[in-house]
Amino acid sequence: MIDKSVVKELVKEWLQDKDYFLVDVEISKDNKIIVEIDHAEGVWIEDCVELSRFIEDHLSRDEEDFELEVGSAGLGQPFKVPQQYVNFIGKEVEVLDGDGKKYKGILKSVDGNQFVVSVQKRVKATDKKRPELTTVDQTFQMDQVKHTKYLISFK
């Protein structure tokens, strides 16, 4: 089986001096290699082709055959690395917390493993009979949520 660390090092070498970043590398038991990259302004197919050729040039099919797929992290897919959170600041996201509760709101900030989303919540004011919809900042830890993903809007 092809070593995942070898593929990651090849990708990191190709990424040097580029604004792209590595999202994920997966290698199945039958040597299907899936490489996901991303960029703040989107991923160009020409760059995926270039990275694919770079990897193929540095791996030997004579030693071990493989299938290679290079692409971008899909829109609407859960975030896998902190840089994806940074890229979507100011955008609407969905967070599924560790307890299975969903939050939808605007991603406000990212600091290390922590991120803040402005969400709408019903809050009861002391002088009111009914709770009112209010925007509040909800803080999450990346490693304590089940997923966070960008919400695509066609408005």
Shape: elongated
Multimerization state: single chain
Biggest sheet strand order reads 7-6-5-4-8
Strand share of the residues? Answer: 35-45%
**What's the tally of helices?**
3
Topology:
Layout: H1 4-15, E1 21-27, E2 32-38, H2 45-58, E3 67-72, H3 82-87, E4 92-97, E5 102-111, E6 114-123, E7 132-141, E8 145-150
Parallel strand pairs: 2-3
Antiparallel strand pairs: 1-2, 4-5, 4-8, 5-6, 6-7
Task: Characterise this structure.
Helix content is 21%, strand content 40%. It has 3 helices and 8 strands; from the N terminus they run αββαβαβββββ. The protein has helices spanning 4-15, 45-58, 82-87, and strands spanning 21-27, 32-38, 67-72, 92-97, 102-111, 114-123, 132-141, 145-150. Strand 1 and strand 2 form a beta hairpin. Helix 1 crosses helix 2 (45-58). The longest helix is centred in the first third of the chain and has 14 residues, at 45-58. 17% of the residues are buried.
